[in-house]
Every structure is written in structure tokens, then in C-alpha cells.
Specification:
It is built from 14 helices and 22 strands. The chain is an alpha/beta fold. It is elongated. The structure holds flavin-adenine dinucleotide.
């Protein structure tokens, strides 16, 4: 009963002209959050802590969204950092964000996010979300990625109670235990606007019935538009980019806000990820070897990139779209043996750790090879491999020879790659794995103020409407960066909290 405390449910009979009567449900609350992922649940917890009545709408049958995939969150000047002498100041982080985006990012928003980030680590800690260690985003970068430790239920009672899923579990329980209501399989479909103010949300229940939720403020947190093909085509330069870990991110929140008069910002920017293939788990071992920084070529067989750009994988993600979106990673038997017997050099975040021996590579590769769908290739000679890849053997052979010379003299004559990643392609059999651009989500969305208020065409806040996480634009320029590890999840949590605080100020419930 506590969960529904204060939420008045009334049934209103609507009589449409020349149509049978339809039952329409109506609810009243203080804050409606649309989307129960990272940013939405953070907003809900914060709003409840400030004394608001909260309803959270979730399209899927469970909460979490992309938040069920992430591992760590950004903070600067946090206690875990200070305890072990990590010196990443707020000033440094703020300037890095702004300079990387060439000041295309929203300075007021970036500042509020960075300034709140350390306190958010304390806030998480108080809720029971502990930090396991602080790592980097890209190799050698600043230590800002606060990787979330397993909870007490891990692994026996709850094998998924670790990383950001631990945080999601804690948020969900907090909302349920503190009088909030989470409505699963109940997507928000429209905003209710009256006299220029947003005063609620229309949702669709699993039964198909419409539910009107009247509220003092609405926080849009539906996670962007990674799965909406039309929106991807409309806004993103390389729309076929493969979404990893996203389902049902159809841009609902962004479209609802736009309909209510909100401006959009930064819609073309996606969270470019390591290249890979569709339908593979982020920890798949064929992909793990293919994205080692050794020898990647265009469909013509020409090397096009310093493969170690994958250390900061958005760079590798950008480079592959520049060549049209298809590349092949080619390696020989000695590299396969190195990865299988000694372990990989380049980790894939927490998914495949540095030094992991790829014991499942052969299984994954051979299965894919047998499918003959153009993702995996194997040959006894470079000429034969080139033929299978529809490349001119002369071009591929020349590229291989150049790489082999660079490897022999330990100096990359083409792209200045670090010498430790220079490996010859000399011992057959030879392997090729196709690489395609992937992304972890979209980064453009509703244009917001530094306080996450949705802005109209004149740049004025739309009263009662807030947008957070990947439903909001303004944290990036034309490219995702990995300079500050944990930036997107960190932004999602902090923007959610900022939105809740400002929504309650707007509602006169907080000073
Ligand atoms: C594999 C992977 C690893 C990652 N690792 C990291 C990391 O370590 N650090 C980091 O900073 N970032 C990481 N990210 C990115 C990070 O997880 C996301 O940026 C962040 O979780 C986005 O939060 P969000 O609240 O905007 O969206 P989400 O968490 O996706 O939440 C959106 C929610 O809205 C729901 N929804 C959609 N439409 C509707 C609707 N109409 N009505 C109601 N609900 C709706 C969705 O179902 C979802 O539950 C990773 C992403 C992936 C895919």
C-alpha cells in the first residue's frame, strides 16, 4: 500500500462523438519520470528524497535500460579518488569537456554536472552503491571511471548485482520502498500541456488503455533514439551504425518534447564504440581478437588507421565511418596463438580484461566461418584471403608487406602506431573478420538549460518540462569522447538528480 501512497486514481468516462464510451484512467502525482533507466531512476530517487510523490513510467517489462550494461561512472574530486591520491580536479575535467567539444557543449550544463559528480559518489555510497576501483576511460587517461562494486547479494542470490546493474537494483528498491510507483510496460506517449505549461503525461498501459498522469513536473528520460531507424537516418551521418545494448530506444521522449515546443541539440552525435558486428555480445572472443590493434584495412585492402586508436574507441569508431563503414581486421596464426595462449593486449573495458586468454576464440570464429555470411574468413595465403574478401590481391599484399616492414624495424611508416602493437602478418593460416561501426547510444536530444529545463525555440524554459541523460543534448560536440571515463552514465545520474531538484523548486516544493 505504501507504494501507492498519495496517488489518487480516478476513472473518468470519456464519450467520443459517435463512438462507444472508453474508460480512461487518471492519476495525480508531483513528478512523472518517463523512463526507468539510469537517469530516470536517479531522478526518481532524488525526487523521493526531497519529499515528492513520484510515478515512473517504463516501456519495457523491467527497469534498467542501457543502465543495465554500464560499468562505471565519472566523478572528479571524489572520496575514492582522493583516498588513493588521484588528482583529477573539477576544473581540469570541465575544461577537458569544453575544449574537446570546441565549446560546442553546453558550458553551464557541463559545469553543473562536473561540480556535482563527487557528491553523487557519496550519494550513491549512502544508498549502498559502493565503488570497486577507479579506472580510466581510454588507455592512460585520467582516473575518473568509478567502477561499481558487486552488492551483498552477488553472486548467489543475484548474479547480476554488480556494475551499474547493482546501482539500478538499489534505485529500483529505493523507489519501491519509499512510496514511488514504477509502472512497467507502460510507455509515455504524449505530454499534457496547458497554458504553455507541461502538466502531465499520457501513457499506454499493457492492456492498451490510456492512462493520464497529471503532475507538477515531467522529467523525460527515455534514453535517446538508437533504435529508431527513421530518426537515425534523419539526424546521424552514418545511420547504419549498430546499436549495442539498446532496445526500444525509439526517441519517444525527444519526440514528445519536440511536439511540446522544445528545441533539439547535437542530434548527429552518437556514442561511437569499438567497431564490431551485429548480434555479438560485447564480450565475444572473435570480436575481442578482431579489435586488437594490429592490422585493419579498407574493403580495397588498404590500411587506413592507427589501429591503436581503439585505446580511445570513439576514435576508431570515427575512423571506420570515414572510410564508408566497412573494414577488415586481418591477422595470422601467430597472432591467433598469442591471443589464445598468452592473452590479449588491449582490454575491452570490463568485458574482456587485459591478458584474458581467448580460449573461446576458435569456437566463436569457426561457428561464424561455417555460417558463410561474410563476417569471418580464413585462407592459407594472403592472395586467397584477398580473393575471398573481393580485394585486389596485389593491393592487400602490398599493404601486408608495408606492415611487415614496419614490424621488422619497429616503426610504423604509415600512421605512427606505438611499436608494441606492430605485428607481422606472415604465418598462415590467415584470418579476417569484418568490422562495422557500432555505438552505445545516441547523444543528441532536447536542448536544455544548465538546470536541465527543456528550452523552447526562443531559448526559454518550457515550464514543467525537464530532459535528462541521453534524451538531452548539450554534453558533446560533434564526437563522443572517452577522455573522462564514465562520462555518459555519470551525466545520466547527475542530470537526473539536477532535474529532480529543479523540478521541485519549480513546483514550490524545494528552496
Ligand atoms: C555495453 C554498454 C556499456 C556501457 N558502459 C558505460 C560505462 O561504463 N560508463 C558510462 O559512463 N557509460 C556507459 N555506457 C553508456 C550508459 O550506460 C548510458 O549512457 C546511460 O545508461 C544512459 O542512461 P539514460 O537514462 O539516458 O538511458 P537508459 O538507461 O537507457 O534509460 C532509458 C529508459 O527509458 C525507457 N523508455 C524508452 N522509451 C520509453 C517510453 N516511451 N516510456 C517509458 N520508458 C521508456 C527504456 O526502456 C529505458 O529503460 C554503456 C553503454 C553500453 C550499451
Amino acid at each position: 500500500m505504501r507504494r501507492v501512497r498519495g496517488i489518487a486514481m480516478v476513472f473518468v468516462a470519456l464519450f467520443a462523438f459517435a463512438a462507444p464510451a472508453l474508460a480512461e484512467k487518471e492519476m495525480n502525482t508531483d513528478v512523472v519520470v518517463v523512463g526507468a533507466g539510469t537517469s530516470g531512476l536517479a531522478a526518481a530517487v532524488q525526487a523521493l528524497q526531497l519529499g515528492a510523490k513520484v510515478v515512473v513510467l517504463e516501456k519495457q517489462a523491467k527497469v534498467g535500460g542501457t543502465g543495465s550494461f554500464c560499468e562505471g561512472v565519472f566523478a572528479a574530486e571524489s572520496k575514492p579518488q582522493k583516498r588513493i591520491g588521484i588528482d583529477v580536479s573539477k576544473d581540469f575535467a570541465f575544461k577537458l569537456i569544453m575544449n574537446y567539444s570546441h565549446w560546442k557543449a553546453n558550458g553551464a550544463l557541463a559545469k553543473n554536472f562536473v561540480d556535482k559528480s563527487a557528491e553523487t559518489i557519496d550519494w550513491l555510497d549512502d544508498l549502498g552503491v559502493k565503488i570497486e576501483y577507479v579506472g580510466v576511460g581510454g588507455f592512460g587517461g585520467p582516473l575518473t571511471w568509478h567502477v561499481i562494486a558487486p552488492g551483498p547479494d552477488y553472486p548467489d542470490k543475484n548474479p547480476r548485482d554488480f556494475h551499474c546493474q547493482r546501482m539500478i537494483n538499489v534505485f529500483e528498491k529505493y523507489v519501491q520502498d519509499h512510496g514511488g510507483k514504477i509502472l512497467l510496460e507502460t510507455p509515455g506517449t504524449d505530454l499534457i500541456a496547458e497554458n504553455g505549461k507541461v502538466v502531465g503525461v499520457v501513457a499506454k498501459e499493457k492492456s492498451g488503455e490510456q492512462l493520464k498522469i497529471r503532475a507538477k513536473a515531467v522529467i523525460i528520460a527515455t534514453g535517446g533514439f538508437a533504435n529508431n531507424k527513421e530518426m537515425m537516418k534523419k539526424y546521424v551521418e552514418y545511420p547504419e551504425v549498430i546499436p549495442v545494448g539498446n532496445i526500444g530506444k525509439d526517441g519517444d521522449g525527444i519526440r514528445m518534447a519536440e511536439k511540446a515546443g522544445a528545441q533539439l541539440e547535437g542530434m548527429g552525435t552518437v556514442e561511437a564504440y569499438r567497431p564490431g558486428l551485429p548480434g555479438f555480445h560485447p564480450a565475444d572472443q572473435m570480436i575481442a581478437l578482431a579489435v586488437q590493434p594490429y592490422f585493419w584495412v579498407t574493403p580495397r585492402g588498404e590500411r587506413y588507421v592507427d589501429e591503436s586508436s581503439v585505446e580511445f574507441w570513439p576514435y576508431a569508431g570515427n575512423a571506420i565511418t570515414r572510410i564508408g563503414g566497412t573494414a577488415y581486421s586481418i591477422f595470422d596464426e601467430s597472432t591467433r596463438k598469442l591471443a589464445v595462449e598468452k592473452g590479449i593486449e588491449m582490454p575491452l573495458g570490463e568485458w574482456v580484461l587485459q591478458g584474458t586468454k581467448l580460449a573461446k576464440f576458435d569456437d566463436s570464429f569457426n561457428k561464424e566461418l561455417a555460417k558463410k555470411r561474410g563476417f569471418a574468413f580464413k585462407a592459407d595465403s594472403i592472395e586467397d584471403l584477398a580473393k575471398q574478401l573481393n580485394m585486389d590481391p596485389k593491393i592487400l599484399k602490398a599493404s601486408v608487406e608495408t606492415m611487415n616492414k614496419s614490424a621488422a624495424v619497429r616503426e610504423d611508416s604509415e600512421f605512427n602506431k606505438k611499436s608494441k602493437y606492430l605485428r607481422p602478418i606472415a604465418t598462415g593460416p590467415f584470418y579476417a573478420v569484418k568490422l562495422l561501426p557500432r555505438h552505445l547510444g545516441t547523444l543528441g536530444g532536447v536542448k536544455i538549460s544548465g538546470n536541465t529545463e527543456a528550452l523552447n525555440a526562443k531559448g526559454e524554459p518550457i515550464p514543467g518540462l525537464y530532459a535528462v541523460g541521453t534524451d538531452s543534448g548539450g554534453m558533446y560536440g560533434d564526437s563522443y569522447d572517452l577522455l573522462l571515463g564514465g562520462g555518459t552514465a555519470g551525466y545520466a545520474i547527475n542530470s537526473g538528480r539536477i532535474a529532480a531538484e529543479n523540478a521541485l523548486k519549480y513546483a514550490g516544493m524545494k528552496k
